[in-house]
Design brief:
Layout: E1 7-15, E2 19-28, E3 31-41, H1 49-63, E4 70-75, E5 80-88, H2 92-106, E6 114-120, E7 133-142, H3 143-155, E8 162-165, H4 166-175, E9 182-188, E10 193-199, E11 202-209, H5 213-224, H6 228-236, H7 250-276, E12 282-288, H8 297-305, E13 309-311, E14 318-320, H9 326-332, H10 337-342
Parallel strand pairs: 1-4, 3-14, 4-8, 9-12, 12-13
Antiparallel strand pairs: 1-2, 2-3, 5-7, 6-7, 9-10, 10-11
Helix pairs in contact: 1-3, 5-6, 5-7
Bound molecules: adenosine-5'-triphosphate and magnesium ion.
């Protein structure tokens, strides 16, 4: 491979609870090119750290991505937090000390047990002079979670350049391709569903809940008395899980309470955003993550929440410059959304 003088290569490595996803992006001037990608499901439901490291090595080998390219990891889950906080306009130093002073309100852990960072969200898009408020993303994670992630990647001979919060990575993928109206992006993974709401191209809301495709699989195992692998396959069979015209299907019934929980989470997030902000109503829901590949899930979401929903294509705005499995890439692209967003660094202000 030969790259131009101004090109830069970045790897987004999304170590999920069900699968490892990797993307290699080349930044040529202002256009991002997808150079390589790969996905590898774990063999087991709960892999050990060594097994996760082996899956990482496997996905790199299979996708032919060099191991030592500038790698960004993603982090999410119970002991991580993304807080979108409004502050009155103040200097950078005042902001820094105000955030430090209020840290205990944002994160329910002692300061010496977390890593945290922050960035101003509304500087570039909104005219700074006319803004009375500064919108800041304050993010943090328990140190042991970050340390474990680094340890796993080191075991796979990956030495990350940085770690980004998954809600912020999702924001990166969506912000430049939507308009100013409020849009919700919902990543339905295996164990976690993340909802972010972006309005005027600024992330205004972020929430994560511990529910996702694994809960659907467990529901199928319990209700239909099938093996876990069969339940996984059943989910992936075209039109089996959700058939919007005949909602009484046996398989759908088994999953109905989990779908209801996921829909309730999305509904609650949107209702909270709409009650708190002056950015109007959410006009569209975009779905990504592996569980967005469930046939008809967009129709189920639109019908239940009465907001147009569609499957998000994170490749919009990116040149696909790899020849590997074009058809497959098109199909699974929503599952790569986090990995693609990870390569965009946005942190400037808060570095500790
Ligand atoms: N074609 C498909 N149809 C239905 N479900 C699918 C399909 N492909 C993957 N899934 C489901 O998507 C989930 C994995 O998605 P994803 O890779 O986004 O999760 P993850 O990032 O590993 O998990 P998390 O974000 O919760 O840590 C699994 O529950 C898997 O069964
Ligand atoms: Mg995920």
């Amino acid at each position: 491979m030969k790259f131009g003088l101004f090109s830069k290569l970045y790897t987004g490595l999304d170590i999920g609870s069900h699968a490892v996803k990797v993307v290699l992006i080349e930044k040529r001037k202002k256009v991002n090119h997808l150079i390589g990608w790969g996905i590898s499901d774990y063999d087991k439901e709960t892999p050990t750290d060594d097994e996760i490291a082996m899956s990482i090595q496997k996905v790199y080998q299979d996708s032919d991505i060099p191991l030592n390219r500038c790698v960004w990891l993603g982090i999410s889950g119970y002991s991580t937090k993304v807080r979108i906080v409004k502050f009155p306009k103040m200097s950078h130093d005042e902001l820094k000390s105000t955030i430090e002073w209020h840290l205990a309100e944002y994160f329910p852990y002692p300061k010496d047990e977390i890593y945290y960072d922050w960035t101003i969200l509304n500087t570039s898009q909104e005219a700074q002079g006319s803004q009375k408020e500064t919108l800041v993303a304050v993010v943090g994670s328990k140190r042991d979670l970050v340390d474990r992630l680094i340890d796993i990647s080191n075991k796979a001979r990956i030495y990350p350049a940085g770690i980004n919060m998954i809600p912020m990575a999702l924001y990166n993928t969506v912000k430049s391709i939507i308009g100013r109206e409020a849009v919700a992006l919902v990543d339905i993974g295996a164990k976690i569903t993340t909802v972010i709401i972006v309005a005027r191209q600024i992330v205004c809301f972020s929430r994560q809940t511990e529910i996702g495709g694994d809960s659907l699989t467990s529901a199928l195992v319990n209700e239909l008395r099938v093996e876990r692998n069969d339940a996984e396959n059943l989910k992936k069979e075209e039109s089996k899980l959700i058939n919007v015209d005949t909602d009484n299907l046996r398989v759908f019934k088994a999953c109905q309470s989990i779908f209801t929980e996921i829909l309730t989470e999305i509904r609650k997030s949107i209702a909270f955003f709409e009650s708190e902000s002056s950015y109007g109503r959410v006009v569209k829901i975009l779905l990504c993550g592996g569980s967005s590949l469930i046939t008809n899930i967009d129709k189920l979401v639109s019908k239940s929440l009465k907001i147009p929903a569609e499957i998000f294509d994170p490749l919009k705005g990116i040149e696909v410059s790899c020849t590997k499995d074009g058809e497959e890439l098109e199909k699974i692209a929503p599952q790569l959304a986090t990995g693609i967003g990870l390569v965009e660094e946005i942190w400037k202000e808060g570095r500790q």
